[in-house]
Write a structure and sequence with these properties.
It is a single chain. With about 220 residues, this protein is of the alpha/beta class. Helix content is about 30%, strand content about 30%. The protein contains five helices and 13 strands. The longest helix is centred in the last third of the chain and has 16 residues. It is globular and about 60 Å long.
């Protein structure tokens, strides 16, 4: 039996997949769907790194998993990515864990020498993951505060050169790598990271693209 756990911050981000599982898989328990040799376990973690790591660590039988998948929408720093595009995150980092200096600059925990930037599972401060799909590969950052001010955007772009931004990705990869379980992070672009203007967002398009990709991966 192949066991796949799907982690999403909110239910609405994977609702189409859950509806697909309800129609096409047998529901064995409150959060297990089975078909042939495949068992799928959708888990809603809540928003942010802390809730993601906690939910993963408390998920029953997670150590028996063959694959962990993190899915959700994301903001893009890369203008070549289109709204609705699906990407695979192959490296991620905690981008706001550190201190703000008196001049407004940011010094992260590795620069503060509070952590070794190459202590497992970090590599030069990044958490990397092997590519596993045909979707475009990107570098992500994970933040507690989504960037919506041009000064913040300029600062983080100059420091880390990210392609996308989420609130859970690095926490997911960190936890999966510490548990030594194969993992995959899939995101769909809902907006560009720019001075906050939700009129330019298309969350529904991103969710539709994300779930089409997720269902395809599961099959």
């Amino acid at each position: 039996m192949n066991k796949v756990f799907i982690f999403a911050a909110t239910e609405f981000e994977i609702l189409p997949t859950i509806e697909h599982l309800e129609k096409n898989f047998r529901k064995k328990s409150f959060f297990e769907y089975a078909k042939g040799e495949l068992s799928i376990f959708p888990v809603i973690t809540g928003v942010g790194s802390m809730l993601t790591a906690l939910a993963m660590s408390r998920t029953k039988n997670i150590t028996d998993a063959d694959l962990l998948i993190n899915v959700g929408v994301a903001g893009s720093y890369n203008s070549e990515l289109k709204i609705g595009d699906v990407v695979e995150v192959i490296e991620d980092r905690f981008a706001d864990l550190g201190v703000e200096e008196a001049d407004g600059s940011f010094t992260d925990i590795f620069e503060l020498e509070l952590m070794n930037q190459n202590q497992y599972p970090f590599e030069q401060g990044l958490i990397k993951n092997e590519a596993q799909t045909n979707y475009q590969k990107v570098s992500g950052i994970t933040v507690n505060k989504v960037n919506g001010n041009q000064n913040s955007i300029n600062s983080i772009t100059k420091k880390y050169h990210p392609e996308i931004e989420t609130m859970e990705g690095a926490a997911f990869l960190y936890t999966a790598r510490i548990m030594d379980i194969k993992c995959l992070q899939i995101r769909a672009i809902s907006n560009y990271v720019e001075p906050r203007n939700k009129d330019n967002w298309n969350i529904q398009l991103a969710i539709n693209s994300l779930n089409s990709a997720l269902i395809n991966i599961l099959h």
